[in-house]
Amino acid sequence: MDTQEDIERLIEAMARLPGLGPRSARRAVLHLLKRRDDRLLPLAQLMDKVGREVRECLNCGNVAAGDICAICAADKRGNGQICVVEDVADLWAMERANVFQGRYHVLGGTLSPLDDVGPEDLRIPRLRDRVATEGVEEIILALNATVDGQTTAHYVARELEPTGVAITGLAQGVPVGGELDYMDDGTLRAALSSRRKY
Amino acid sequence: MDTQEDIERLIEAMARLPGLGPRSARRAVLHLLKRRDDRLLPLAQLMDKVGREVRECLNCGNVAAGDICAICAADKRGNGQICVVEDVADLWAMERANVFQGRYHVLGGTLSPLDDVGPEDLRIPRLRDRVATEGVEEIILALNATVDGQTTAHYVARELEPTGVAITGLAQGVPVGGELDYMDDGTLRAALSSRRKY
Ligand SMILES: [Zn+2]
Ligand SMILES: [Zn+2]
Description:
Pfam families (chains A, B): RecR_C (PF21175), RecR_HhH (PF21176), RecR_ZnF (PF02132), Toprim_4 (PF13662)
Shape of chain A: globular
Largest interface: A-B, 49 and 49 residues
GO molecular function, one term (chains A, B): DNA binding
Function (chains A, B): May play a role in DNA repair. It seems to be involved in an RecBC-independent recombinational process of DNA repair. It may act with RecF and RecO.
Radius of gyration of chain A: 21 Å
Mean pLDDT of chain A: 90
Oligomer: homodimer
Number of domains of chain A: 2
Strand order of the largest sheet of chain A: 4-3-5-6
Low-confidence stretches of chain A: none
Bound molecules: zinc ion
Number of strands of chain A: 6
Helix content of chain A: 40-55%
GO biological process, one term (chains A, B): DNA recombination
InterPro entries (chains A, B): DNA_Rcmb_RecR, Rcmb_RecR, Rcmb_RecR_Znf, TOPRIM_dom, TOPRIM_RecR
CATH topology of the largest domain in chain A: Dna Topoisomerase Vi A Subunit, Chain: A, domain 2
Order of helices and strands of chain A: HHHEEHEHEHEHEH
């Protein structure tokens, strides 16, 4: 039976999504099968539409409808600040927080010599060009506070040093609402060493 | 920006799937955006194909490519046994365990006066017809070992009593409160092989 095979293939494809496994993929597909007209077919259509529309911004690496993303295209976002993030997910997190008014640069990962990920793979040359041409005054390194993220931040900072642009990084410390008892040693050490006047 | 809105809508649609929330839906969509050609577009196509193909078997309620599902259409499955399940997920669980050679009847839920779910909503009349016309010798009630499942099993058993067909239920072995879809193959096999007269 072809349909049963297609359903199996659909479950397998869903199970490959991060956060889903075979069991949750089955449940999701069954849910969709029961709501074919108002869920399954619209979801298929939306995926197809997004898949056909979506591009990578040639300037910053964000998702875009055309060559340039909405943030790079918005004049008011050109305030001289560029926030460098690893991933589009991090850009979305910053935008959700609604705390940053400048532009972004999405590296697309972290440096990893073992995995053959070098500076060209991470849009670092493009970042150097932007600093030279976009009137950038400050580069904010908002990379993850992981070893890879911080190694990459160091590399980017060193690369941009000759341009004379101001380079800053997100503060490390105890998250708002965080309880000391739940923090790891590294977080406590960072929070203590960059303590501020009360 | 249209694309960003479409992406938001896609995330919302994914977040409505059981087992996913806003956060995992975002991660899944980002994953798909990064693998547009080998993941996103094929998944969209597969969903659309399944959505257009899939029907409900007019005989048993299983998913089907046409009017009648593959199990109802297979001569060798007509062995005089019908296994009554609540849901297609339970039918899949039985088929995965590969312990039952007969046909199924998918009720599509459990009786629930509070939610206005009556016998007609559960394909119970259709089950009575099948007993009368399909040469059925045994009805195996494989409903979930929940209060609703067992209430429904009692009702079905009482409805079928006048037909004189043998009515059995899965053996204890399925833990009280457990759901078929969560059981391992061995448990299902044991429960089926020591089924008891109802
Ligand atoms: Zn951009
Ligand atoms: Zn059928």
